[in-house]
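Retro notes, item 3 of 5
We never archived the inputs for the thiamine diphosphate complex last cycle. Fixing that now. Sequence and ligand:
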Amino acid sequence: MPTSAQKNIVLLSGNEAVAWGAWAAGVCFASGYPGTPSTEILEALSSFDCLEAQWAVNEKVAYEAAFGACIGGKRALTACKHVGLNVAMDPLMTTAYSGVNAGFLVVVADDPGMFSSQNEQDSRRIAPFAKIPLIEPSSPSEAYRFIGEAYQISEKFDIPVLFRITTRISHTKESFEMDASRQVPIRPLDRNISKYVMVPGHARARHVDLEKRLMRLQEYSENTPLNRAEIKDRKIGFITSGICALYTKEVYPDASLLTLGMSFPFPINKIKAFAKKINKLYVIEELEPFLEEQLKQEGIKFIGKKSSWRCGELSPHAVRQIVDQKERDEQPMKSRRPLLCPGCPHRPAFYALKKLRYYVAGDIGCYTLGALEPLAALHTQICMGASIPFFEGIGKSNPGQKVVAVIGDSTFIHTGISGLISAVYNNTKGVVVIMDNATTAMTGAQENPSTGVTLQGKKTKQLVLEDICKAAGVDWVDVVDPYDLKAFEKLLKIRVEEDKLSVIIARHPCKIIDPSRKPSLKIDQKLCKDCGLCLKLDCPAIIRDQKDSLYIDKLLCTGCGVCLQVCNLNAISER
Ligand SMILES: Cc1ncc(C[n+]2csc(CCOP(=O)(O)OP(=O)(O)O)c2C)c(N)n1
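Structure as it came back at the time:
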């Protein structure tokens, strides 16, 4: 939001800057699926009434809906985290061939250091693979400015543009002057069949055309001010991109610097010209040696980083160490142990699963924390939607082993439904638990089709999970409140013993969206024998005092009553 009427000085995070940049560039349609660190881009776009901003069920659908808007003649955008881009790879690869009508941006937020991700893939490599240009801002203000430029590139060269940021840019705030005016360039709906119907005959021609477009983009990359050389001290110089440009500037303010805001197609002549002027040339980049490899190919002499720096995030300190040719020596970051919130409905479900000693094929969401001690009741988590297919494969390869799949409501809708249909089709037996907390909690409680509300707060048709499961052909579909531990455990035991495929929907709203509380509980010290059973719930409200006795923290306790059901000695009661 502008904070000064005269100068429009704003303080924005990188994600907000992307949204404002897109707004100023006339974006009319934006679609995404939540994923840290990219989530706030769509959330910020949702506040503009002049455009359509949507959560899609997954990144592939988001990409395709936004691309549809681009064919329709409106500037469009899709945003996701790095692993989300993997889900959207299918349309991404072929829309490079077809090209665009109105401008189309794919904003991807990588997560070096894996603050909230299952891998730290370097999405820059996707640009040459998909043959699309790559834009990398190094700050929120650049993110704002580069968006407009990226749309022009997309339209001029008839191509989707990959706009890559990282956690540090997404979540860092910068104050800068913003030209808060909006221009909306619109094109007519494109009816060019040979461009948008990628049958082999058309696609062959579009591939040839894509190579020509890339050659023109190469020339553009050599001359664009997005790639900027600052010649200062010629004894030492750096080639860098993204947030690393800021780190390098901070540590070596007097050095020469070539910052690549458009790092694919690689501006090789500009780089050669820069390298010639510099005595000692360094390449500073996070994760993969993406720039280094290009320089090596061209025989340009430079000093790069040791391979230990391929893992994890960089920092100004890291830049100094890379220049000193040191190995990464940082100790792993000490962080607070993650755990489920007090009153989280996932907790009792995992308590029961652990007690029954089933093998649990898990998925990604808050419920993945069920893998941590003392619950330790979730045995796999690789990518979104993998739980049900894993459950199928593990069960079929281990007859006799009781295997259960566990998946959240948002993840089920994302890519779980297809796994369930496949399990039904292939005569799979066993129990799938859908942990329905009525929100996408992991990424900050976003709406999804089962909540019946859109990103822009409009009421919509609510997806009924039990109807979907029944329609998929599941034999038994039950709904149970996991707060009722006994009922949940009993049902689970019954269904696991049956030679059928069943779904149990463990339904209770997340405490973030329903912060209501009951009176807090207390432990009667006279009855408590410190057997440790309640501690197995891993509830943050159950704490040891200085005398080593257990007590329940009044402020943290939500009164969910799960510990009360677990205690065999009736030592827990209402306050
Ligand atoms: C492909 C992909 N997209 C997005 C994410 C980010 N993400 C992780 S879990 C999750 C959804 C969690 O919601 P839900 O399944 O309802 O479980 P909850 O957190 O509410 O327990 C999201 C969006 C991801 N890890 N991978």
